[in-house]
Amino acid sequence: AGIMASSKPLARFWEWGRNIICVGRNYAEHAKEMKNALPSEPLFFLKPSSAYVREGDPIIKPYYCNSLHHEVELGVVIGKKAHAVSQKAAMDYVAGYALCLDMTARDTQAECKKKGLPWTLAKGFNTSCPVSDFVPKEKIPDPHKLQIWLKVNGELRQEGETSSMIFSIPYIISYISEIITLEEGDLILTGSPKGVSAVQEHDEIHAGINGILSMQFKVAQQSRQS
């Protein structure tokens, strides 16, 4: 397989990758804590690429949000155009991985659900997708054998094994690629284990993939333009 020939540096996918596709409810325990039924097909939604934020910059809590939740997730970075790929071939389209946070305005999401409205306000705001450095595929022989974790102010809040995913990565790639053609540099967030909770201004979030990498972000408050 080797490195995929690329016009753009995959190691900086967040600077040019176009789509962020997030899978919800992909860990049974998290679906349970959110009082959601287990999905029979992957539930997914989009974040704009402006949602990316990197270590060194803060996660901004939106002005309209009173309950900002963290969701730690394994991200899959796509290495070449994938349209309606089979599960069997799906991993050939993976360039590597990243640790990601799906930051969620939970109170806003609850309102959206109640009114039957899209989740964009809850999921797509600026800085709603913190990402770690890129991890080339060769460094993670089996993405379903990882442990991901998240601490807030030093206290462990989330810890999960990617082996507990309801839908596997090949299944997710195959399913999404039939609906949305995946492009080089696109990112798929594969769902969050249980333990999601609220963060406040000045909180420190520390998250990692055991034995691979970790990252840290501070939470700041958005002030509203008059």
List strands and helices in order, with pairings.
Elements: H1 13-16, E1 20-24, H2 28-33, E2 43-47, E3 52-54, E4 59-61, E5 68-69, E6 72-78, E7 94-101, E8 104-105, H3 106-115, H4 120-123, E9 129-131, E10 135-136, E11 147-152, E12 155-161, H5 169-179, E13 187-189, E14 198-199, E15 204-209, E16 213-221
Parallel strand pairs: 1-13, 3-9, 4-16
Antiparallel strand pairs: 1-2, 5-8, 5-14, 6-7, 6-13, 7-10, 11-12, 11-15, 15-16
Protein name: Oxaloacetate tautomerase FAHD1, mitochondrial
Pfam families: FAA_hydrolase
EC number: 3.7.1.5, 4.1.1.112, 5.3.2.2
Could you walk me through the main structural features you see in this protein, from its secondary elements to its overall organization?
By secondary structure, the chain is of the alpha+beta class. It contains five helices and 16 strands. The chain has a single domain, classed as Fumarylacetoacetate hydrolase, domain 2, CATH 3.90.850. The strands form four sheets. A six-stranded mixed sheet has the order 2-1-13-6-7-10, with helices on one face. The chain has a five-stranded mixed sheet with strand order 4-16-15-11-12, with no helix packed on it.
